[in-house]
């Protein structure tokens, strides 16, 4: 058991339970929905809402208890993000990708770096995985330069994490660096229709110019290819949450907002068919007509299946991590990739539901400024994401199962 040290930070609410923090997220859905229009225009959820997220403890769910976190578990975190996504998908995307990298820091970074970066326990940090910049070796660390796009969650960040290449040593792989947000420039290139969807996700570009990052605030960027050994953070914190498996976990952060868009679309569709009548005589409420009933029922089934997949994967993640922590069989790459593939399937079900509801809601629901249009646009942004390629991942699951060459990131 790790010894307690003077760096230990007490959690703000020692008696807070997992059930209570999920209930807080669900209670915030109306507030989250109220700020949709403003959030989409400014490119991120409003500061007042982020204060509520902070006070509720959402950023601390995947943070080690030693550094002021609750370390509740992946399943609890995903339930919270699912609720936020029902309020606004883009807001959930930004919150999730600003909060869930605490787990990666705790799993992979050196202890000294964790002490420095977690600081007083207030840690909000996007992580851009594509190595779009360089880290040049210097005395005691690296000088970092570059520009990274799609840094989701950066609007309210305290830190910035990114992957880099070391000049002349590119074949050695990627180096992950983390630095306080004051050391970088956030570029105002997100929101207000700059992209088709997820305008409220705070996915701005970030420029880093000649920033020195001490070596203890860096680590290898390969967080995925270990076959038998957990991340060092599992032993450091004596906690299975920090075993280091990130495939399913990272991708769920993109898929849960898509499921949220589907659930919100269902809510909006119900409102439409409950308040509008059919066009032609006999004019009756739409919800009484089989055609509209059928669309509602089919979409709801797909959404609830998608939500069930996420819930099952969250539970499975923690079961596998606890088994590994207890000295049992490893939480394997095949396990992780298989859950990644399941999460992708959840996204497909959610997208199918959203498309069905959008088509059944009539053209008036497609007008600019309507919620149904926003949810459809937010859903659409997932289609272009590099990690949404279900055909690639499903083939990789088979290769891992049969002991063939591992191609995944």
Distance N to C terminus: 33 Å
What composes the largest sheet? 7 strands, mixed
Helix content: 40-55%
Strand content: 5-15%
Q: Mean of the pLDDT scores? A: 95
Provide the low-confidence segments as ranges.
none
Q: Number of DSSP helices?
A: 14
Integer-rounded radius of gyration:
22 Å
Q: What is the strand arrangement across the widest sheet? A: 5-6-2-1-3-4-7
Number of strands: 7
- N-to-C SSE string, H for helix and E for strand: HHHHHHHHEEEEEEEHHHHHH
Overall geometric form = globular
Structural class: alpha+beta
Comma- or semicolon-separated keywords:
7 strands; 12% strand; seven-stranded mixed beta sheet; alpha+beta; 409 residues; 14 helices
Topology, pairings included?
Blueprint: H1 18-27, H2 29-34, H3 36-42, H4 47-56, H5 74-87, H6 89-99, H7 101-108, H8 111-118, E1 127-138, E2 141-148, E3 159-165, E4 174-180, E5 185-187, E6 205-214, E7 218-220, H9 232-237, H10 247-275, H11 290-325, H12 333-360, H13 371-381, H14 390-401
Parallel strand pairs: 1-3
Antiparallel strand pairs: 1-2, 2-6, 3-4, 4-7, 5-6
Helix pairs in contact: 1-5, 5-6, 5-10, 5-11, 6-10, 10-11, 10-12, 10-13, 11-12, 12-13, 12-14
Structural overview:
The chain is α+β, with helices and mostly antiparallel strands and 409 residues long. 48% of the residues lie in helices and 12% in strands. The chain contains 14 helices and seven strands. Strands 5-6-2-1-3-4-7 form a seven-stranded mixed beta sheet, with no helix packed on it. α5 (74-87) runs antiparallel to α6 (89-99), α10 (247-275) packs antiparallel against α13 and α12 (333-360) runs antiparallel to α13 (371-381).
């Amino acid at each position: 058991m790790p010894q307690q040290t003077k760096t230990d930070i007490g959690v703000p609410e020692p008696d807070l339970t997992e059930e209570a923090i999920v209930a807080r997220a669900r209670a915030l859905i109306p507030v989250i929905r109220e700020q949709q229009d403003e959030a989409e225009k400014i490119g991120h959820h409003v500061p007042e809402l982020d204060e509520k997220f902070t006070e509720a403890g959402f950023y601390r769910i995947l943070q080690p208890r030693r550094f002021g976190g609750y370390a509740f578990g992946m399943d609890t975190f995903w339930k919270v993000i699912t609720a936020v996504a029902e309020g606004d998908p883009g807001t959930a995307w930004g919150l999730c990708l600003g909060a869930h990298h605490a787990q990666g820091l705790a799993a992979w970074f050196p202890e000294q770096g964790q002490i420095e970066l977690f600081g007083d326990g207030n840690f909000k940090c996007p992580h851009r995985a594509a190595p779009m910049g360089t880290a040049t070796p210097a005395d005691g660390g690296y000088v970092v330069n570059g520009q990274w796009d799609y840094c989701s969650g950066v609007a309210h960040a305290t830190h910035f994490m990114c992957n880099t290449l070391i000049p002349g040593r590119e074949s050695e792989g990627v180096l992950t660096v983390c630095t306080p947000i004051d050391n970088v420039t956030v570029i105002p290139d997100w929101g207000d229709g700059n992209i088709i969807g997820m305008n409220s996700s705070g996915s701005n570009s970030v420029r880093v110019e000649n920033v020195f990052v001490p070596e203890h605030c860096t680590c290898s960027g390969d967080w995925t290819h270990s076959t038998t050994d957990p991340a060092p953070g599992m032993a450091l914190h004596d906690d299975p949450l920090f075993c280091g498996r990130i495939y399913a976990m990272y991708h769920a952060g993109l898929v849960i907002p898509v499921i949220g868009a589907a659930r919100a679309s269902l809510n909006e569709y119900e409102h439409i068919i409950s308040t509008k009548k059919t066009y032609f005589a006999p004019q009756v409420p739409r919800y009484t007509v089989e055609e509209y009933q059928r669309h509602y029922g089919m979409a709801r089934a797909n959404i609830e299946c998608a939500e069930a997949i996420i819930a099952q994967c969250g539970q499975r993640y923690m079961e596998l991590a606890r088994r590994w922590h207890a000295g049992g069989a490893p939480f394997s790459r095949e396990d992780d990739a298989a859950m990644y593939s399941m999460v992708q399937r959840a996204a497909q079900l959610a997208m199918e539901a959203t498309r069905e509801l959008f088509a059944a809601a009539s053209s008036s629901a497609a007008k600019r400024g309507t919620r149904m249009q926003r949810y459809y646009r937010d859903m659409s942004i997932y289609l272009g994401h590099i990690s949404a390629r279900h055909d690639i991942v499903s083939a990789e699951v088979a290769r891992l199962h049969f002991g063939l060459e591992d191609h995944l990131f």
